[in-house]
Each structure stands twice: as structure tokens, then as C-alpha cells.
Automatic annotation (TrEMBL):
PANTHER family: OS02G0105600 PROTEIN, OS07G0161500 PROTEIN. This is At1g61320/AtMIF1 LRR domain-containing protein. It holds the Pfam family LRR_At1g61320_AtMIF1. Residues 9-320 form the At1g61320/AtMIF1 LRR domain. InterPro entries: At1g61320/At1g61330-like (IPR053772), LRR_At1g61320_AtMIF1 (IPR055357), LRR_dom_sf (IPR032675).
């Protein structure tokens, strides 16, 4: 039974009647999606005391206060709470009475300061916590397979992380992604296979001398908002070359960048390109880079990956930004024209030019301006352009 409508408090009597019908019908799945216009509709006590048949419960924009004689949802397997007004104590009580729970989502619950379970949740395998701005600690007695989190860096404590296979983290506080991977929460995951990480970073990574090894990591997706003025930019994209050393089994790498820095494209007059000692990586097959504006450290990272990845089948470089808030093409047209064209030309000249005849590198991002057709038809060319164009 699904209720998806923007009701108000004056409709509370109707909602109560519907919910009574739901329970009398022994409904197994209940979706109650109201809106913030309900001003925190209070879920009636009989839902919390009579939901023995429920397998799935999804609540949006309601207020939940458990009765003193709450017996729990003995058969509940999935619980989603979005914009739910509920206290720490009631969440703990709720979880303690849901022994079969497998999936838990807590999103935009503004009253919560801690999320923890009093007893073991042996069936809980999937946890999603997003945008609970007051939460300062997550401590769960469970063994997860997937974990999704969005918010500032907070202590994350689980009974075990040996079963974690997929982790998605969107950090709203400033941190360096490489530091977080090698010394933060992910470094405790022995069998992690897929990692998605979003970060805003202003400082360069402090990479450990002996980086943690992710032996089983196969898929890595990074979304990086990189800040800094040209004269004192502290970030360095080349640092992410360490990822290949950290993850010897990595097969797919995605690096989506938004370089919110002074636009300084690379050309021969800016000095030679840096190179790191090459350590052969025998598993990496696919690389996808976006937001490639042609900065020197971006070129250096692309060339390092290209040269040390012996099994590489495809490297896709796109000068367009994919992670701008508001959509791919949210930036002004002049911003796209300048950055996208420069990035396309630099990637074509320096990265695809180093590919020789292997046809591994594919460059895109300036086709809408007609530049790709000009460059792709040339076997030898010389390009000059004004970086202030």
C-alpha cells in the first residue's frame, strides 16, 4: 500500500483511517510519503504496535514516537526513514525490535545526533545514512555488505568490516580523498571491492610511505572538487598515481574532476613533465577521466597511468565537467568554451600523442565546437592557442 501525496495536518484523520485499513489488510509493504507541509504528521501508535505483518516500511516527512509497550516489527526486512522526526532513543529502541532487518536508510533526520544499535543486528547487510547534519557518531553492531554515507567526517564503528564489499561516501567537510582512502575509514576494509568517494579538497595529500593495500578492490570512482589559486595551489592531481600501488587488482578507474582553480593549461613552455618510477600494473583495463582542463598535473597523471598499465584497453578523457552541481552543462558558455577546448587540445597532443598506434586513448569534449574533426584528420600538426582566449 502506497500513499504518495502532499497532505496537511488537517487530513490527519483520513490518514489514520487509511493506516487502520492497511493493518487490518495485513499489508506487507507500506510506503507513506507525505511532504514537509504536513508539519510532522504523528504516526499513530497503532502502527507501531500492530505492524507484525510488515516486511517493508518507508516513511517520509512524519513524526515517529514509539509507545511504551512497543513490541517491534518482528518481520520487517526493509526500513526507510526520510525527513522523519525521531529521537536517538527511539531509533535505538526501534532497531532493537527489528531482528530480521536487512536494509536500513536514515536520511535527513534532523534530530539525530547518534545512530547506534543496542544489540546485534545479524541480518543487517545494507546501511544508508545521508544528510543527518547533527549526527556525530555511527556505531552499529552488524556486519555490512554495502554502506552509503553522505555528510561530514564522523567516527564510523561497526562490529566487523570484513564483509564490506561496496562503499559509497560523500564527504561534505574538506578533506583529501587520497588521505581518506589510505588512513581513514576505508583502510579498515580488508575485502572491499567497490569504492565510490566524493570530496572537496584544498590541500595536498599526505601519502604514507607504505600505503595500505586494497588487495580486492576492483572498481574505484572518485569525484573531486579541487580548489586553489595558481600561485599557491596546494593540491596535486599526480598524487593519485599512488592508487595503482594501493590497489594492485584495480580493473576500472573513474576520476571525475572539477578544477576550481586558476586556468593554467600545459604547454612546452611551462617546463618538462614530471615522471614517477613506473611500477607495472597488470589488472587495470578501463580508465575514465572527466573535467580534464589540460592542467600540467592532469597530463602527468594520465601519462603515468597510460605507461604503467600493461592490460589497459581503454582510456577515455573528456574535457567536460560531469559533477558540477546543477548538471553537466550548468557552467556558463564562455567557461565551457575556454576550458573544454583547451583540455581537449592538451589531451589530444600530449596524451593521445603518447599512445602511439595502440588506439587506447579516446578524447572527447570539444566535438560540439567542430575541433575534433580538424584534429582527428591530421597525422602531424602544430597547434598554438592563446590561453586567455
Amino acid at each position: 500500500m502506497e500513499f504518495w501525496c502532499p497532505l496537511h495536518n488537517k487530513h490527519a484523520g483520513h490518514i489514520d483511517t487509511w493506516l487502520k485499513f492497511v493493518l487490518l489488510s495485513k499489508t506487507k509493504e507500506l510506503i507513506l510519503h507525505l511532504s514537509n507541509s504536513t508539519m510532522g504528521y504523528k504516526l499513530p501508535f497503532f502502527v507501531a504496535s500492530g505492524g507484525s505483518y510488515l516486511r517493508c516500511l518507508q516513511l517520509t516527512s512524519v513524526s515517529l514516537k514509539l509507545p511504551a509497550d512497543f513490541n517491534g516489527f518482528p518481520n520487517l526486512k526493509r526500513l526507510n526513514m526520510v525527513d522523519v522526526t525521531i529521537t536517538n532513543e527511539h531509533v535505538e529502541c526501534l532497531l532493537s525490535k527489528c531482528n530480521l532487518l536487512e536494509f536500513l536508510e536514515i536520511t535527513c533526520c534532523g534530530m539525530l545526533t547518534t545512530l547506534r544499535s543496542l544489540g546485534p543486528l545479524n541480518r543487517l547487510k545494507h546501511l544508508k545514512v545521508q544528510d543527518c547534519i547533527l549526527v556525530e557518531l555511527i556505531k552499529m553492531n552488524c556486519g555490512l555488505i554495502t554502506f552509503e554515507y553522505s555528510g561530514p567526517i564522523v567516527p564510523l564503528q561497526f562490529a566487523t568490516t570484513s564483509g564490506l564489499r561496496t562503499v559509497s561516501v560523500n564527504l561534505t567537510s574538506d578533506t583529501n580523498a587520497l588521505d581518506y582512502i589510505t588512513t581513514g575509514f576505508p583502510c579498515t576494509m580488508q575485502h572491499l571491492e567497490t569504492l565510490n568517494l566524493k570530496c572537496n579538497q584544498h590541500k595536498r595529500a599526505i601519502s604514507p610511505v607504505r600505503p595500505h593495500k586494497f588487495i580486492y578492490l576492483r572498481d574505484l570512482r572518485l569525484e573531486l572538487n579541487i580548489f586553489g589559486a595558481s600561485e599557491d595551489r596546494k593540491t596535486d592531481v599526480l598524487d593519485y598515481a599512488y592508487l595503482l600501488d594501493c590497489a594492485p587488482s584495480l580493473e576500472n578507474l573513474e576520476l571525475h574532476m572539477w578544477m576550481q582553480c586558476d586556468h593554467e593549461i600545459y604547454h612546452a613552455g611551462r617546463g618538462g613533465l614530471r615522471s614517477l618510477p613506473l611500477h607495472q600494473h597488470t589488472c587495470l583495463k578501463s580508465v575514465y577521466m572527466t573535467g580534464f582542463f589540460g592542467h600540467k598535473d592532469q597530463v602527468e597523471l594520465a601519462l603515468y597511468i597510460l605507461r604503467c598499465s600493461t592490460a589497459l584497453k581503454a582510456m577515455k578523457i573528456d574535457s567536460r565537467v560531469k559533477i558540477i552541481p546543477g548538471g553537466t552543462y550548468a557552467a556558463p558558455a564562455i567557461y565551457r568554451r575556454r576550458h573544454y577546448l583547451d583540455g581537449y587540445m592538451v589531451a589530444t597532443v600530449f596524451v593521445r600523442g603518447a599512445d602511439r598506434n595502440n588506439n587506447i586513448v579516446q578524447v572527447s569534449g570539444a566535438i560540439q565546437y567542430g575541433l575534433a574533426r580538424v584534429i582527428d584528420g591530421c597525422t602531424r600538426f602544430r597547434v598554438t592557442w592563446d590561453p586567455d582566449f
